[in-house]
Amino acid sequence: MILITRPLAQTENLKMLLDESDIEYVFFPSFEVKKINTEVLSKNYDVIIFISVNAVNYAEDYFKKLFASSFKVFAVGPVTAKRLIDKNIKVDCFPKVNASSKELLAMQECSELIDKKILIVRGKGGSETLKNNLKKLNQVDYLEVYKRLPCELTKLHTESIEVFLNSPKGVLMASSNESLSNIVRLLNLDSPDNFKNFKSRKLIVFSPKIRVLAESLGFENIKVTLNPSDQDLINELII
C-alpha cells in the first residue's frame, strides 16, 4: 500500500505502474495545480523544453505562437513526450526510461546545445537545474504556465489516512520538499497524533535534498530513489 501524494491530475502513469505490479494505493494529494495566464515572449527559439505533462497541458493555448517558426522540442521524460506526441507535436529528444532534468542534460542532443535560444516550459517555482546548466552556453528563458497550491484537508484525505493506517506495510512518497511539508501539515490538521503514527513508516523520496528535510522532520525509515521517476519508485516499493 502506498499513499499517492501527487495532485490527482498527475497520477495517471503511476497508477498504471502500480496496477501492473499489483500494489494497492490510496490518494492523498498534497497540492493542486492551477493554470497561470501568461505572455509568450516574441522570440524564435531554437529549442523548446517541456518539463512535465502539466507543462504540455497548460501551454496548449500558446502552441500557435510557440510553434510559429522552426525549432526542436525536448521533453524531460517519456510520459511528457507521449503527451506531446498525442497532440501531434514531434519530440526530438527525451530520456527513454527515467524522467529527470539530469537524464535530459546527459543526452547528446542536449549536451551539444551551444549559442542557442532555449525556452523551458514549466510550473512556477520549479527546479533551476536545467536552466543553470544550459545557460552556461546558451540563452535560456522560462514560460511558466501553472502554479502549485497547497491542498486543504478534505474527506478524501481523512479516508485515505484511515485506510493507510490499517495497512501495516503502508509506504509514503514525497517528490519534493514542498510536497513533504504539505503532507505533514495535512496529517497534523487531521489529528495531532497522525505524524507520530506516520513517521516510522517507510518514506520514499526522489532526491537526497528531500531526505535531509525528512530527517529533520523526524521520519525514521527514508529511502531515496535512484532517479526521480515513477519506475524507480516502483522498484523501491518491490525491494
| Approximate shape | elongated
Low-confidence stretches: none
Which class of the largest domain in CATH terms? Alpha Beta
Share of residues in helices: 25-40%
Could you tell me the CATH topology label of the largest domain: Rossmann fold
Distance between the termini: 14 Å
Q: Helices and strands: which structural class?
A: alpha/beta
Number of continuous helical runs: 12
For the largest beta-sheet, the strand count, sense and barrel status come to:
5 strands, parallel
As a percent range, the share of strand residues is 15-25%
The CATH architecture of the largest domain can be given as 3-Layer(aba) Sandwich
User: What is the C-alpha radius of gyration, as a whole number of Å?
Assistant: 19 Å
Task: Provide an overview of this structure.
This protein is an alpha/beta fold and 239 residues long. It folds into 2 domains: 2-30 and 151-237, Rossmann fold, CATH 3.40.50; 34-148, 3-Layer(aba) Sandwich (Rossmann fold), CATH 3.40.50. The protein is 39% helix and 21% strand. It is built from 12 helices and 10 strands. The protein has helices at 12-20, 53-59, 63-66, 78-86, 101-106, 108-111, 129-134, 155-165, 177-190, 194-198, 208-217, 230-237; strands at residues 2-4, 25-27, 31-35, 47-50, 72-75, 117-123, 139-150, 171-174, 202-205, 221-224. The strands form 2 sheets. Strands 2-1-8-9-10 form a 5-stranded parallel beta sheet, with helices on both faces. A 5-stranded mixed beta sheet has the order 3-7-6-4-5. Helix 2 runs parallel beside helix 4. It is elongated.
